[in-house]
Amino acid sequence: MASTSLPLPLLFPSSPPNPNPTKLPSRRLRPFPNGHRLSPTNTPRPLPVRGRIGAALMGTTTTAAAAARVSPILQTLAANPTFVSGMAAWALAQSMKVFLNFFVERRWDLGMLFTSGGMPSSHTALCTGLTASVALRHGVADSLFAVCLGFSLIVMYDAIGVRRHAGMQAEVLNKIVEDLFQGHPISQRKLKVLLGHTPSQVIAGALVGIFVACICCRGIAAI
Questions:
Q1: pTM of the complete model
Q2: Which regions are flagged for Low complexity bias (predicted)?
Q3: What are the structural domain ranges in the chain?
Q4: pLDDT digit string (tens) for 99-155?
Q5: Which whole-number Å values give the CA distances from 202 to 47, 117, 124, 155, in the listed order?
């Protein structure tokens, strides 16, 4: 029985010959599900301008959300009108010292931002800001208002009495040391004189605290 054998070209079919040998066949690009195509070097096309802006906004939003999760205590304090009133009153009083000192001495002294004494009293502004905020939020019949009021009166009495007299004593001691130990290294060391406050400075600080508390309580309540 004669075996029929197929020719080799039929057993192993090859691709059809290229009619133009000088031109290589183009490579087909693999499509993405969203309709975009890759370039022959498999490099994705850059995002359009709107896409880049949207990605930047999404990154900013994600960062802000992460920061909010990390610091929930700061958010709680920022929404507390009593805390905001006290801190804002203290910061405003300290800032006012710099400008008032410039008008008196005609020189800028940024150290007044972190020093005690001077016009107005920042300690009094802080205490009265807390007290006024509690009075506006909870009422004067609340026991918390009585606690804040007592605390504020003690601070104001200390500023006018003990701290003020301590500053006066420091001024006298500086003069005594300067006269008795003239030329001695100890005469170069000066005690701090600006410690307490005059009654007018304490009253000014109290007015600043009450003013800031009224603004903060109304502003946060409106929000």
A1: 0.61
A2: 1-13
A3: 81-222
A4: 988 888 888 888 778 888 888 999 999 999 999 999 999 999 999 999 999 999 999
A5: 62, 10, 6, 10
